[in-house]
DUF1569 domain-containing protein (Saccharibacillus sacchari), 149 residues
Amino acid sequence: MKNIFDLPSTEEILTRIDQLQPNVEPSWGKMNVAQMLAHCSAFQDIATGDKRSSRSWLGIVVGRLAKPVFYNDKPLPRDMSTIPILIIPDPQAFDAEKEILKQKLQTLQHVGPDQQRLYPHPFFGKLSAEEWGKGIYKHLDHHLRQFNV
C-alpha cells in the first residue's frame, strides 16, 4: 500500500495535483475542485494537530476495529461520509488551495514519519506514522480520482 511518507508516492500525488484544472467537474460528490483541495489540506491539519476534532461516539466504539477496512489497498468508496470540520461549504480560490496543499505535502515529506508529530484521527483514534501515511495517501487518491486525475 502506498504511503505519503514515501517519496515516490508523494511525487505521484503532487504530479496529479498539478494536473487538476479549476473548472473540472467531479465524478461524484458535492465539492468543487477548490473545495476538495481545501478539504484535503484540512485532513493534513488533522494529522499534524493544526486542526482538532473530538472523537465521535461511533469512532470511540468501533473506530479501532474499523481500521483494517480503511488501511488496505482497496480504493475508498464514493460518497462516504466525512468528519464535519472537514466539510468546506464556502467558495475557495483554486490556485491558492492547490499551492497550500502541495506545500503541506512537501512539509510532511521533508519532516518525515519519524519526526512528524501526529495526532489521533477523530474516528480511528491513535494511528502510527505508517497508518497516517497510508491514510493520507488513500484519502488524496480518492479525491484526485473524484476529479479524474
About this structure: The two ends are 19 Å apart (CA to CA).
